[in-house]
Amino acid sequence: MASGEDRLIERYFRPLARDPAALGLSDDAATIKPPAGCDLVLTTDGVIEGVHFFADDPAEAIARKALRANLSDLAAKGAEPIGFLMSLALSAKADEKWLAGFAKGLGGDAETYRCPLLGGDTDRTPGLISVSISAFGALPHGTMVKRAGARAGDLIVVTGSIGDAALGLALRRDPALAGRMRLNEKERAHLAGRYLLPEPRIALAEALREHAHAAIDISDGLAGDLTKLAAASHLSMRVESERLPLSTAAQKMIAADPALLETVLGGGDDYEILAAVPSTALPALQGAAKSAGISLSEIGKVGEGEGAEIIGPGGGAIELLCPSFSHF
Amino acid sequence: MASGEDRLIERYFRPLARDPAALGLSDDAATIKPPAGCDLVLTTDGVIEGVHFFADDPAEAIARKALRANLSDLAAKGAEPIGFLMSLALSAKADEKWLAGFAKGLGGDAETYRCPLLGGDTDRTPGLISVSISAFGALPHGTMVKRAGARAGDLIVVTGSIGDAALGLALRRDPALAGRMRLNEKERAHLAGRYLLPEPRIALAEALREHAHAAIDISDGLAGDLTKLAAASHLSMRVESERLPLSTAAQKMIAADPALLETVLGGGDDYEILAAVPSTALPALQGAAKSAGISLSEIGKVGEGEGAEIIGPGGGAIELLCPSFSHF
Fold first, then answer.
1. Number of structural domains chain B divides into
2. Domain span holding position A263
3. Do the Cβ atoms of B125 and A51 come within 8 Å?
4. Listed residue (A323, A305, A164, A138) closest to A237, CA to CA
């Protein structure tokens, strides 16, 4: 007699576990033969209802965000995805419809990013829904792009645009804000979408491995993650706020309320990549980014000394009340 | 400025992450070079407050149980532990004292079982405490002991004793039961301890790899997991209840209330290993178990046909209302 968990796995998750390593989710563990000469890169990230997503977010988006947060870590380290394990805590709210949407989102992204579900653990909880994912990637031995490794003189680059997700979250909390900021529907939808569904920069993994000295994925805000990147290399990093890549929606909001620059710099959920790159390698990295359809902006420089600074339009460092986003 | 999460990691978890692969928990991911010629075995298991442990269980025991549940999966597959990732959701209840106890338990077991903390993710939750662990093991290529693979004529063996944890849980829910069953303090403590702290049979991993055709770790009750093991090999498995290894405490409780046999056979949290072994290999496996200080009992046989049966003292199959423990 199959238990409730078995039936749920059979119906929703076994169809996603087509990779031979997953053994059809019918064993106690998955098994992989690591690619020869490769290191494995291991990361874990979880999302919790009411903390990282709203209870009424679409289940499909919750699944995708949970997986993408992990893929973003792999991308920043230069790793190609191999697969993932998932530990799922489901409240009564997670009914058949919710589970069908969740499995659809998860399966779609697993396919898009070639990161198959290898195994998992599913439990009912009297508490909140949570999704913990551990993702695995591979790269040639010794080539992981670390946080440490930047050199004085390196250029600081960032993918995509910064702050959209944090502004999207602000709009989610205060829907009237879009009207006060005179955002058009396209701009509002852009910010909302960037909060709901990050874009892991997996397509840039190989080029980062080849060209970057150090990298981090921006999950807790540019300011805080720049500080971590600088500290890991025991060097200083100085970024010019005027060079930051901002969407037109973000530019409009900051123009209307300059205090929102704090949200842009210190908010979470960007899932862009911040990297230190030697100037000689910048053209090659830019070429790879262009081929991958990912914008790449040079925003600052690595120097001697310690600490991270974001220089405002007036030439002085911008002081942030809360430079790093934390749920604590 | 360090966030609350950073401070917490620094204080409680960085001291546990001494393995070079963990990069001092100061990067986005861990990296390991898999042992040459080996496959990796990947498993994940989570525990949730109020579901898998009681809110007032010692934090030290919660950490150890969470890790040990994963180690038990690795052991059953014949894998040697490499390390683990942990995703932690902490409620307000998880104060400094709780965290210190948790880290102590986790660190102690990571050392005992040579399974270092490689990375993690920590969040505050407005909900219940939960701990999700993904553990990794290694074994020579192609040697993972699967659930499938038993052959007709194989003997069925089980480690340790069965049902103690389920009876320990019953005592936890109804403390007066110990008195009604006339358990002495040693017997009561034995059952309580077996519920609180499973013993992963890691020391038997190599011998299982060498001698077992198929294996599963018993986490949802012998009856249900025997059914899974039989189904995976498309064979029948028949176990004699009189040969089941029962502790003296369990024997006493079943003698007082025969209905408790249902709890013993269908309860959860045994974390013993159930395996199908060719009769020619049994002496070698028994020798290895003896060397490791783990008892091993021959309890039944694999035959043609399908299905799992537990034969009672009268010679007929025992019918269970709920052969497999499920939190659903």
1. 2
2. 155-311
3. yes
4. A305
Yes or no: say if B269 and B199 are a contact pair by the CB < 8 Å rule.
no
Nearest C-alpha of chain B: how many angstroms from A150? 14
Round to whole Å and give the CA distance between A309 and A311: 6
- Chain B neighbors of A13, CB-CB under 8 A: none
A·B CB contacts under 8 A: 222
Q: Are residues B41 and B127 in the same domain?
A: yes
Residue A291 shares a structural domain with residue A241: yes
**What is the radius of gyration, based on Cα positions, of chain B?**
20
Q: Do residues A264 and A246 make contact, with C-beta atoms less than 8 angstroms apart?
A: yes
Closest-CA residue of chain A to B146: A27
Asked if residue A12 is part of any domain, the answer here is yes
Verdict on whether the full-model pTM lies above 0.90? yes
Reported ipTM: the value is 0.94
CA distance B288 to chain A (A): 23
- Shortest distance between the Cα of A220 and any Cα of chain B, in A, equals 10
Binary contact (B43, A34; C-beta < 8 A): no
Please check whether residue B30 is in contact with residue A149, taking contact to mean a CB–CB distance below 8 angstroms. no
Contact (Cβ atoms closer than 8 angstroms) between residue B176 and residue B260 = no
Tell me if A44 and B85 make a contact (CB, 8 A cut-off). yes
CB pair distance less than 8 Å for B85 and A40: no
- Chain B hits for A20, Cβ within 8 Å: none
Q: Give chain B positions within 8 Å (CB) of A213.
A: none
**Interface contact flag, B46 A123, Cβ < 8 Å:** yes
pLDDT tens, chain A, 328 aa long = 457 788 889 999 999 998 999 988 989 999 999 889 999 999 999 999 999 999 999 999 999 999 999 999 999 999 999 999 999 999 999 999 999 999 999 999 999 999 999 999 999 999 999 999 999 999 999 999 999 999 999 999 999 999 999 999 999 999 999 999 999 999 999 999 999 999 999 999 999 999 999 999 999 999 999 999 999 999 999 999 999 999 999 999 999 999 999 999 999 899 999 999 999 999 999 999 999 999 999 999 999 999 999 998 888 998 876 666 665 5
First CA to last CA distance, chain B: 43
A145 within domain boundaries: no
- DSSP conformation letters of B71-97: HHHHHHTTPEEEEEEEEEEE-TT--HH
Q: In chain B, what is the greatest distance between 2 CA atoms, to the nearest angstrom?
A: 71
